Amino acid sequence: MSVNRRQLMAGAGTAGLGFALAGAVDAVFAGTANAATPAAFKGYGELVADPKKVVDLPKGFRYTVFSKAGKDTLDGPGGGLVPAAHDGMRAFPAGIGRSVLVRNHELSPGTKDPIVPQRPGLVYDPATPGGTTTLTVAGDRLLRHVPSLAGTYRNCAGGGTPWNTWLTCEETEATPASEAGLTKKHGYVFEVDPFGRLRDDAPVPLTALGRFPHEAVAIDPRDGTVYLTEDAAKPYGLVYRFQPKRAHGGPGSLRAGGKLQALQVPAVRDLSAVRDLGTRLSVTWVDVPDPDATTVSVRAQFDNAKVTRVPKAEGIFWSRGVIYLVSSYAKVSEGAALDHSGQVWRFDPKRATLELVLRLEVGGRFDSPDNITVSPFGGIVLCEDGDGENYLVAPSADGTPYPLARNAGSDSEWAGATFSADGKWLYANIQGDGLTVAITGPWWRG
Q1: Which of 6, 24, 93, 125 lies in disulfide reach of 421, CB 3.0 to 4.6 Å?
Q2: Cα torsion for 295, 265, 261, 376, to the nearest 10°?
């Protein structure tokens, strides 16, 4: 059943739920008045058709395609074609005007697409084709492009760390017992260092972060707490937090272990049940009995009354003291409490509150947000993975979604949107077309 403000207040009382009206919801996305998302942001205008039929952008913006799967060649020993299925990605500052991008490749066994080359020292399981590539760029100019992790399974999203490494996530829970040919268990997070500080003989899975269909990761730099999303069904996935033993962090620090817990919102078993913008809920966390899912999937280790499930839990991103969390869509026909075409939640770790700040209605122009990023200036960008046309979406301060870019070449999803440190360039992937693009323009306009 759906949950609205009146039902929440009547059902459990505002004190028990931590319920409060958001007040000025129009301040949610702006952060502070700034060049990227001014307080009165109303979008960048309608998109201009691209004569090349690749990316439609607002007037004054431009793009460059600088990496093509199956066509461009990787650098280094053995070469090889750029692998397919570009997904999550993060830009790391690498000097004035330069960035290093670490990019996921969401590839599964049996694919006919180009795989991540399995060079010595990079391979986890030779039976699996996924992994990451690392690209050095100067604006929209590619300088170097090499594989950085191989032999992993469905590298979907992930997240950056405060110490400038990339956490890449396997969206699976396959094992040698469940899938013929595999040599190792999958469903882990791996740390990839864009700058070569980790020197391992082989990739090291971060087992303490759990073995489940991982989607994305965000870290609170104040205490090192890791927040993780799970894209799964039957039952729906969970949102987790991992409290590391080494709170100060650093490359390799997550290998020291810690405690994995799952999200619980009292009286709300499914976040899709919440429909009113500004609804604010208190949260608690419950310990995961068996993070490595030895016999039972992590999400199935809980009675539904003990945790809060999230249909299609996807992107998650840390920015300015809060974490943004995406639920891509929910369908009653698939077991959700209420239909929607996308939610964005804002989690405040200090107050332990979760607030609904964006809700996309079924049948609207936009649907199924997936990856999420926040510009250095505070503006949010969502990557659509929906039906029909797919967009990069820039919500306004009051939660109104506006188009930022459209995939003009196909119905493939956008993924991996990430800004350069100076905010000039937005890098993003068009997964099915195997393209990575750089977008720039008058971000201050709107």
Answers
A1: 93
A2: 120
C-alpha to C-alpha distance for 212 and 215, rounded to whole angstroms: 9
Question: What pLDDT band is residue 284 in, cutting at 50, 70 and 90?
Answer: very high
What is the number of residues in the chain? 446
Residue at 83: amino acid letter: P
Q: Which amino acid is at 314?
A: E
Q: How far apart are CA 202 and CA 325, in angstroms?
A: 32
Cα distance between residue 218 and residue 220, in whole Å = 7
374 token code pair: 């926040």
- Partners of 362 in the beta sheet? none
Tell whether the model's pLDDT for residue 24 goes beyond 70: no
Q: Which residues of 90-111 are buried (b: 16+ CB within 10 A; e: fewer)?
A: bbbebeeebbbbbbbbbbbbeb
- Token couple for 36: 């990227």
What region, left, alpha or beta, does residue 277 occupy, with left being phi > 0 and alpha being psi -120 to 50 degrees? beta
Q: Which two tokens stand for residue 110?
A: 């049996």
373, 381 in Cβ contact below 8 A? yes
Q: How far is residue 99's CA from residue 194's CA, in Å, rounded to a whole number?
A: 10
Residues 125, 184 contacting (CB under 8 angstroms) = yes
Alpha-carbon gap, residue 23 to 404, rounded angstroms: 27
Structure tokens at 318: 């840390």
pLDDT over 80 (residue 13): no
435 and 54 Cβ atoms separated by less than 8 Å: yes
| CB distance 28 to 22 below 8 Å | yes
The two tokens of residue 398 are: 């009051």
Q: Which domains does the chain have, with CATH numbers?
A: 5-440 (2.120.10.30)
pTM of the model: 0.92
**DSSP run (H or E) holding 10:** helix 5-12
DSSP 364: S
pLDDT tens digit sequence for 392-442: 999 987 889 999 999 999 999 999 999 999 999 999 999 999 999 999 999
* Amino acid 399: pLDDT: 82
